[in-house]
From TrEMBL:
GO CC annotation: cytosol
NCBIfam families, per the entry: unchar_dom_1
Organism of provenance: Streptomyces telluris
Any one GO MF annotation of this record: 1,4-dihydroxy-2-naphthoyl-CoA thioesterase activity
Keywords: Hydrolase
A UniProt-annotated Pfam family: 4HBT
Protein name: PaaI family thioesterase
InterPro entries in alphabetical order: HotDog_dom_sf, PAAI_dom, Thioestr_dom
Domain of life, source organism: Bacteria
Thioesterase domain boundaries: 46-117
Protein family membership: Belongs to the thioesterase PaaI family.
Amino acid sequence: MSRPSADTPPHESAFVAAAGLVVTEVSPTRVRGHIELGPDHHTPWGIVNGGVYTTAVESAASHGASAAAGPGRHAVAVHVSTDLLRSRTEGRAEVVAEAVHQGRTQQIWVVTVSDGQPLARGQVRLQNTGTGTGTGQEQS
């Protein structure tokens, strides 16, 4: 199992912690994790709020993109789009983020949230920031 790099923040914000994403693998091209969905994630109508999935999408992509950005750098989301495909009330949702494009200044990641069937799919464009060497894989 890969671990977050030394440049990864040591803890999540209270907001991200409340969403419940547990990151289990981080590499410069892939991130895996899960969320235990339950009543704390519900809308007033008893289903998981789409914001939970969107938070997982952005957070997973940010972890991977920051790992890829290079020493002394990190990545910040500049555009997040999440399609909510199925409703759910509880259970484990797996989160998988994969890099689609990794350039010197920006990256694009696709993230799926599923419980055996897709619950949500998102795409995140991130800006590499800070000082350091960057990914150096492509020009953006």
